[in-house]
Design brief:
This protein is about 30% helix and about 25% strand. It is α/β, with parallel strands linked by helices. The radius of gyration is 14 Å and the shape is globular.
Length: about 150
């Protein structure tokens, strides 16, 4: 199974945090990354997003149905994110990948946990995608970083 972490695109400042919307630059970032994902991601990708407005808008740029999960809201942790997607087993063997649209620092901490085995404050840029695969080699489970794509390189 693959997990693709997509940090929401650039958003306006403001309060309440959950209602912050994308800036015009953020809308462009979301569209650019959505075009990249449309070309590279599997067709039967499961998409799950934070309930925050900026994540909802980022996910909508793909033009595909997606679920909303409160365990991905701002302030939640890497363990919450992994529980929301049932990593590494996933919810359905017919779903080869899950795309998570979420926030910092949760996404960076999740990336660190997946690759280094412990949470750390890794930075994921706004609008960027980090794509991981889980595989078994010689009886050992491994997590592999397949791609890291910032929005400006799409």
């Amino acid at each position: 199974m693959d997990i693709i972490l997509w940090r929401h695109a650039e958003a306006e400042d403001g309060i309440p945090d959950i209602k912050r919307k994308l800036t015009s630059r953020g809308e462009k970032q979301a569209q650019q990354m959505a075009a990249w994902l449309a070309t590279h991601a599997p067709e039967n990708l499961r998409i799950i997003a934070s309930p925050a407005r900026r994540c909802q808008q980022t996910a909508q740029a793909l033009g595909r149905p997606f679920d909303t999960d409160p365990r991905l809201a701002p302030g939640r942790g890497a363990v919450d994110l992994l529980a929301a997607i049932n990593w590494p087993d996933g919810p359905d063997p017919k779903t080869p990948a899950i795309l998570v649209v979420g926030h910092q620092p949760t996404l960076g901490r999740t990336a660190a946990l997946l690759l280094a085995g412990s949470e750390a404050d890794w930075s994921i840029k706004k609008g960027a995608v980090w794509w991981f695969s889980n595989r078994t080699r010689d009886g050992e489970t491994q997590t592999v970083l397949r791609a890291m794509v910032p929005a400006e390189l799409t």
